[in-house]
TrEMBL record:
Organism per entry: Geodermatophilus africanus
Domain Mycothiol-dependent maleylpyruvate isomerase metal-binding: 23-153
InterPro entries, per database record: DinB/YfiT-like (IPR034660), MDMPI_metal-binding (IPR024344)
Protein name according to UniProt: TIGR03083 family protein
Record-level Gene Ontology MF annotations: metal ion binding
Amino acid sequence: MGVPWDDSRRAFTDAARWFVGTAALVGDRWSRPGLGEWDVRALVGHTSRSLLTVETYLARPASTVEVASAGDYFRTTRAAAADPAVAARGRDAGAALGSDPAAAVAEIAARVLPLVEARDGTELLTTIAGGMRLADYLPTRTFELAVHTGDLATALGAPLDVPATAAAQALGLVTDLAVAEGHAGPLLLALTGRTGLPSGFAVL
């Protein structure tokens, strides 16, 4: 999925700001159920890693491209995403946000967004999946921010006001994954009201 760098950067920024704004709505509900085994604090902690990994990986330049696209990144990391360590990292990240998690999230975004704004997308960085161009990695973070802020909004009973830029990029990515894995037919029929999706249907 080729996305112009300026559009990708805008989608990431909009998704990050939606996350910051939604986290600000939590109030005293940090211990209420968030997603699966995570409470709201752990869900916010996990989501904050979509910002923090950009900062971390930019500080770890790569010499070669090993993962050529956002879709390839998700295919490469699919098994790792199911590891119990992911849930533990979410809880740890939530705890690391300290006594005022919403303020911590806002500070992280204020630190990371200018780092992205200062780049042109050609930078090579070392991700958990291998060397990637920033322009190819950033859509994976926009996707995670959009989906998990949606999870957070749902947990809080807040509107699912996904920014249009982030929604378009996230839906484009998940559509690419569905097509690549032979799931386009069921998805097309469901989205046009012909039938529901099979139980347990997912592309990630």
